[in-house]
């Protein structure tokens, strides 16, 4: 799709460049690229029709700190478990996410405190419904027993009109 956008832009530049100065050609090319980009975005929006779910991983802060001292072979085993889950979920995984540290809780008056929510990471998945998202989370690495207090929280995203 990107090649066709570039091709159309080049064609427009050549066409306009024959008739007028460079500024006009650049302006016309930008217009063509912008129009083509809108088509790409609208086609991508049509493709992705499922609901999105935010997966929030919770674990005690101490557990996250302990993970830094795990031997390399144990870390590799943990990563392999995550990679297997990522492969199983496939294109329904919108964003694998990342571990989270040093959270802050902001107050309306401008002050902040360290977060006490014990959020340790996130992922974003796309699923048809709650049953689908629950099947994606079966055998999830975060719940593999690495820590007895590790939990997963799931939130369905809501599209706001005009946003």
Question: How many strands in all?
Answer: 6
The CATH homologous superfamily of the largest domain corresponds to Dimeric alpha+beta barrel
Class from helix and strand fractions: alpha+beta
Assigned CATH architecture of the largest domain:
2-Layer Sandwich
By oligomeric state, this entry counts as single chain
The portion of residues assigned to helices is 40-55%
Distance between the termini: 25 Å
Shape: flat
User: Measured on Cα atoms, how large is the radius of gyration?
Assistant: 23 Å
Blueprint of the fold:
Layout: H1 2-19, H2 22-47, E1 51-58, H3 61-67, H4 72-89, E2 93-99, E3 104-106, E4 112-114, E5 119-127, H5 130-136, E6 151-156
Antiparallel strand pairs: 1-5, 1-6, 2-5, 3-4
Helix pairs in contact: 1-2
């Amino acid at each position: 799709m990107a090649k066709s956008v570039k091709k159309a832009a080049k064609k427009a530049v050549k066409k306009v460049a024959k008739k007028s100065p460079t500024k006009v050609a650049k302006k016309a090319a930008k217009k063509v690229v912008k129009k083509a980009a809108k088509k790409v975005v609208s086609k991508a929006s049509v493709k992705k029709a499922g609901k999105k779910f935010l997966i929030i991983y919770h674990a005690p802060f101490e557990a996250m700190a302990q993970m830094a001292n795990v031997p390399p072979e144990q870390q590799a085993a943990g990563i392999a478990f995550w990679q297997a889950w990522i492969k199983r979920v496939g294109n329904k995984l919108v964003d694998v996410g990342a571990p989270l540290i040093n959270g802050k809780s902001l107050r309306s008056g401008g002050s902040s405190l360290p977060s006490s929510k014990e959020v340790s990471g996130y992922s974003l998945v796309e699923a048809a419904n709650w049953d689908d998202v629950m099947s994606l989370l079966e055998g999830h690495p975060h719940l593999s027993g690495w820590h007895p207090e590790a939990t997963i929280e799931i939130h369905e995203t809501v599209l706001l009109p005009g946003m």
